[in-house]
Amino acid sequence: MATQHTFDVAILGAGPAGMSAACSATALGLSTVVLDEQHSPGGQIYRAIETSPLTDRSILGKDYWHGASLVDNFARSGAIYEPRTTIWGLTPPQADSHWQIGVSRDGAASFVDARHVVLATGAQERPMPIPGWTLPGVLGAGAAQILLKSSGLVPSGRVVVAGSGPLLFLLITQLARAGARIARVLDTTPRGRLRTTLRHWGAFALSPYAAKGLRLALEACAKAKFERHVDAIEAAGSTHLEAVRYRTGGRERSVAADTLLLHQGIVPNINLAAAAGCTVQWDAQQASFRPRVDAFGASSIYGLSIAGDAAGIGGARMAEAQGRLAAFHAAYVLGRLNAAEFKQRTQEAKRELAHWSRGRAFVDAMYCPSGTFTIPDDRTIICRCEEVTAGAVRKAIRMGCQGPNQLKSFLRCGMGLCQGRFCGLTVNALFAHERNIVPEQVGYYRLRFPIKPLTLGELAALPQTLQSVQAVVRLPASYTVPAAS
Amino acid sequence: MTDDAFDFAIVGGGLVGLAIAYGLVRGNQRVVILDEGDNALRASRGNFGLVWVQGKGQGLPAYSSWTQLSARLWPEFAQMLRDDTGVDVALEQKGGFQICLSEAEMRVRVDAVRQLMIQPGFETYEIRTLDRHQLQGYYPGIGPGVVGGSYSALDGHLNPLKLFWALHLATQERGAAYRPNAPVTRITRDASRFVLACKESKAVLAQRVVLAAGLDNARLAPMLDMDLPVRPQRGQILVLERLRRFMDRPIVNLRQTDEGTVLIGDSQEEAGLDDRTSTTIAATLADRAVRTFPVLANARVVRTWGALRVMSPDGFPIYDRSRTQPGAFGATCHSGVTLAAAHALALAPRVIAGDLGDMLAPFAPARFQSARRSMEYV
Amino acid sequence: MFRRACPSRHLIQVTVDAETVNVEAGDTVAAALLALGKDACRTTPVTGSPRGPYCMMGVCFDCLVRIDGKANQQGCMVLVKPGMRIELQHGANALVDVLSAGRVRGTSPGNC
Ligand SMILES: Cc1cc2nc3c(=O)[nH]c(=O)nc-3n(C[C@H](O)[C@H](O)[C@H](O)COP(=O)(O)OP(=O)(O)OC[C@H]3O[C@@H](n4cnc5c(N)ncnc54)[C@H](O)[C@@H]3O)c2cc1C
Ligand SMILES: Cc1cc2nc3c(=O)[nH]c(=O)nc-3n(C[C@H](O)[C@H](O)[C@H](O)COP(=O)(O)OP(=O)(O)OC[C@H]3O[C@@H](n4cnc5c(N)ncnc54)[C@H](O)[C@@H]3O)c2cc1C
Ligand code: FES
After folding, report:
1. C61 Cα–ligand 3 center, Å
2. Which subunits have 3 or more CB–CB pairs within 8 Å of chain C?
3. Could you tell me the pTM of the whole model?
4. At what angle do helices A390-398 and A424-435 cross, to 10 degrees?
5. Is residue A134 located within the same domain as residue A96?
């Protein structure tokens, strides 16, 4: 990969947000590079759209294939696309440099330089900690969807799907259309949600999601046996999932199972933005942390825009509009658009954004997770990497542990390879619950680079400076820097 | 217990404050530990975990003796913590290495060892200098660029996070009160007690007070007519994934923890209160580690961190007792892991006695008034 | 357990723990293992409990396997290739060659 070249814009992530940002940026004459760790463009929603073995278009549905035109435009945009490129670092400009993006590709690390960065790294599934969720045979529902899109694989044997949210309905219908038999769906949406979300109904009914959502929900219900208002779930088995135990209406039930798919919504992938130093804030409506951005996606750091689900969950069509806005903003900052042009271009994208954001509040309120699925019981492993239980965390909190960062030291919770992606929100919720404070008072893990592991050899091959050598070797001034190995 | 029943208030819940607090509660004192919140600068969360003797004390032989004493006390101290809490801090004192990657480094090393040992009053022990061949006999996988090194049987390491956790558990188990999120803003004195004003919580009263607030000691000490002139010095560290055990003795800048992760240290940077990491330092650390053990090139770096050392002007600990405010003490050092045993078992009893004694006299801040000594780095 | 919902397009051969098997070109290593009925791909270094892929999108790090001799590769991020050597992992990474970096001799250096 070119190292000395400085791009006008580097776009991190080739999902709908990143692809649309790239199309708009190149159309304005900005030299643009798009970095993504996947093998082909599309992001999560349009994953494997160019390579999927599923020829029957009805399985994944119209919304999925909408991505084809976007990928097409992206391919023709003239943006330089770097697949299989993992981003592990992002450093704001220093006195005499530009943005520096640390990447790893084919086992070698390097930097990509850019004047402006659009971070569009999307979302991940919200962790759903239940006893036994680390057993083989238990997967995220999103994982099953990825297996379906990329490989045409469907779960066989006795399949149980558990959780809540619109993507759960989507997955159930997609799997069913592909021929999977789902033994049971454990819907964890609490009783009374339709009532408590009353005030959001109007906006949702008028939104582009209403009819589609209703159709999906009906189709899903027709395809599988639903248990409603499930308020506790446990995956049982010794070395592999054998059964799923659950509770609804005060009664305990059990169902034999080979595969359990868990899902309770998605949350922004904040590691990269937070490690770069962006202000990250609690979003009560979405019950998650997200980087603070303005109406154009500009983050708290000058020259860094954030678009799509990485800035807060809005879905693919909002992500597209946000990508455009971020590109226009970059062009304005870089002097390619004057104020009037900027205003004119962003108006259309803003209208689009408003259109696709209608109804979100209902979805967020309706499917906000609660109960044991956010505040698990003592025996539940909450940090999958270091195998720390909720009970151990509660004990530390009662000992006066101040928050997530002290907890890391005490229990190694959040110190594993996933870097807190699967325990951060649970830890936050446990502190908030035990202390009776709000999540923003608890805070989040301090995140640092590398946000994805790279080898020591890769790191060792990166440039050093005289200062870095002196700070480490601590020899008299006569000592000179050895040539990089 | 009411607040004014405290015999001691410890300002600071880092390794220094906790170790002293532990010694005090073992001496049947009623102790309260006041600490800041989750995002405080806390060197005790970011250190390398060495219990290190080799090379220390250039310019102040008493520091070597104090360090050696602590190293000797460590097995007993670790056993106490295990008995009190069930936590094993994974102490290992089987010796440790320093490795040189060039002839220049080797010359500096050999010279430093000689200078150290010839100091009058230095409590000698063996530091063996090793050539490449001798080193290879011990670590066959060292890289071709390793020139030699040194070895001392007194060195060791432990799991500093387990130590931190064990000290929290042990002090509370033995009755100390821990007040997190209670940063001390001001310390005054009424007729018989110290009054410690805390941000956002009620003031704490105690008969005596020990300042162990890390970097904040510099601000707090003058309130009690003491002098703890510390400054931050940044250190960056890399962490590798868990590997099956392949090292049984630490190298001063590369060690494998009891959990299997490998730590690679560390830089010394004057960066003020900025504890961020940088890729150039990471590259230098990685490069040196790969030159030490080339096969580590394939291992994954899972984390990096930067933490601020609590550094005195000459690098040695400062232990102070206020002349004008009887009952006020201050303690700070940049080897709080190594010295934890001495802090709990040797310093704390002196604090209870109300007099730091002869052994600790060389560490009084009065030394900063005399000529500036050579800087000490380990 | 997973099965293919569409006809196979192109099979290639790889080895899984030295056994030669056919897998679908275009699959990731994690997908290929799941299609082969191997839901578990490793045991954890912490307690030795079995794990398999959880997220399939590179964030959970539960899909780690040894690929062509390199341990701790994210199986869900790597595509299968003809002749690839895939090995399930047990506990912490023992980079075979790392073991020779240090040998526990029980002697003090200098005595040898
Ligand atoms: C598993 C999953 C499945 C989903 N399925 C659907 C669906 O079927 N329908 C739907 O409407 N919505 C779905 N969503 C919601 C989805 O987030 C949005 O609809 C949409 O994909 C958001 O677009 P985006 O461009 O913001 O991010 P994404 O589409 O998530 O794109 C982000 C891109 O960034 C890349 N990336 C992230 N981190 C790094 C890194 N460190 N280095 C390099 N590259 C990186 C990723 O590989 C990805 O390609 C799904 C979400 C998830 C998590
Ligand atoms: C990179 C690095 C590597 C190191 N490696 C080693 C090693 O290998 N071996 C070794 O022996 N040592 C090592 N050290 C040094 C060791 O970590 C420190 O000596 C030790 O942690 C210092 O402890 P402390 O309690 O003085 O300070 P800190 O750990 O900083 O604790 C100070 C405490 O006081 C609290 N505080 C501050 N102000 C106030 C206030 N106003 N009111 C209440 N509370 C307050 C803080 O919140 C904090 O909890 C290393 C340090 C670093 C940075
Ligand atoms: S399955 Fe989660 S990282 Fe591969």
Report:
1. 5
2. A, B
3. 0.95
4. 40
5. no
